[in-house]
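Subject: Interface between my chains keeps coming out wrong

I've been trying for a while to get a sensible model of this assembly. When I model each chain on its own everything looks fine, but I need the whole thing in one frame so I can look at the contacts. Pasting all components below, labels as-is. Any help appreciated, I'm running out of ideas.
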Amino acid sequence: MSDVAAVEVKNLVKDFKGPFRGGKVHAVRDVSLTIAPGEVYGLIGPNGSGKSTTMKAVLGLVAPTSGMCAIFGRNSTKVDSRSEVGFLPENPYFYKHLTGAETVKFYGRLCGMKGLELKHRVEEMLELVGLQDARDRRLKGFSKGMLQRIGLAQALVQDPKLVVLDEPTAGVDPVGSREIRDLILELKNRGVTVFLCSHLLEQVQEICDRVGIIHQGVLVNEGRLDDLISLEDKTELILENASAELMEQIRSLVEVTHGAGVISEGRARTTLESLFLKETQSKTTGVPAKSRRVSK
Amino acid sequence: MSRPVATSFFSPRRSLIIAQSTVTQLVRMKVFYFLAPIALLFLGLQFFDAFWYEGPEALMPEQELRMHKNLCLGTMMLFTSLFAIVSTALLIPGDIEDRTLYTILCKPVPRLDYLVGKLFGVIAVIFIAMVVMDVLLVATLHFRTEEKLIETTAYMTKIGYPEREIEAGRAEISAHGPTLLLQFGVISHFLKACVIAAVALLISTFSTSTLFTIATSVMIWIIGAFQSIARDGLFNDAEFGDVPTWADKIVGTLVSLIFPDFQLFEAISDGAARAEDVLPADMAQLAGLSVLYVGIYVVLSWFVFSDKEF
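Reply #2:
Try treating it as a single job with all components included. I did that and got this:
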């Protein structure tokens, strides 16, 4: 693993002109964060907290008022820094006049790819996002979920070492959302660094190694997900096929232990999303092969 | 997978990719459908005889050919200039509003490549449209010239003109046909459209809406068309009676520096329509000036666009 951070943000400050003369809107205030190569980093926060501005600064779409951003050691304001980056913006719009395959090809060519390499890569990407059937359809007929998928395909076309995703599952149905999540995990397994912005906390929790919480432009907390969400003084125990006698024994044992107590007890639950996926996928015929393969 | 190398500040290849995409975009927007009414107009002119050229004036068919050329060249100028403004004004603000620009600039694409690509895409479409219109113009003018030659020869022979005068008449008519000189007029309109597209490109880099870009570009087009007249008014005291002040001179100089002088293009086009001598050197000078104008506007656009935040 390389010593150079995949993303480095140092004391980033970004102010925008306010609605009044001389006024300023502080979008990001002194944010510093580092993402190691191969890591999945989630930046979470409410709407207008500065997530997208931080992301845009990392991608060089906005210039920092002060501080700096670097991608694999290259300053984000330089075009070179973007050669190893794939970006999927929130609610992406692409050229509606292009077909699915033409879109991926266009972005591949912009990255310097050509010939057979590009041709194979386009097919590979369309297969990866499950859009082979829509390869010759123009984007103006694509659903929101399909646009998101073609966005992912263009982001990954040059095999980037860093993928920046802004609300990657916004507007996507649960099955599509699951596929995107599995794809992110697949990228992680391949050693690709993922920088993710989302306000879907459950999703972030499932896939991110580290998380930063941004609020009103300030990074209020940051660290490994396990460290951030584990409660020091509480322990969870999930049992399978526990008899009433066993439960009684456990309760008795807890009662005689000084300082310990049972806070809640009940049946373990699945998530609504898991239930939805289980019900829809088991009762649907003709589920795309990709969905069956990636959904666990 | 190949690893990218350092990106230069300008890559003709990337500009070409963006230009190709722009051409595809405009073609799929069905912009060439506008050529259908223009084709109809050109063909319709074929059957239009000026009724006032009857009697002795019928010996001046070159007037009709000149009118044919004027109308066709005027239509070409109007179409290409408006097309240059509207298409350039639609493309860049459209990319910003749709956020397509995010995904393009997040690839290793220098902003200059994007601007040059968009401009050249528009220019390529103008060129294609111009070639189609030029072919139509040449074809219709050829048939009309042949028709006039036959009519005039028959008429002059009938009323007993000597052979020498008939030949002179035929030469006069042929000079108003599809000659190289006519192509100078067509090229001057193409060059003018390129300059107008570059002006619209500059405006679209700082404009916040398509409407503003179109309105401002049209205003500059009008100022450019009349600035030489205004300059004459300011500098030529003998003609207008007033002595120009220093302020007049400064304003006049600034206007001529900021706004392109479209009268220069019109002069070549008018000369071509009148079948007057336009030297290839004049044409080359105009082409050089156009390249200079486009270059200056592209550099200014780059200057504005390079620091633009999205």
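Reply #3:
Confirming on my end. The CA atoms of residues 35 and 46 of chain B lie 17 Å apart.
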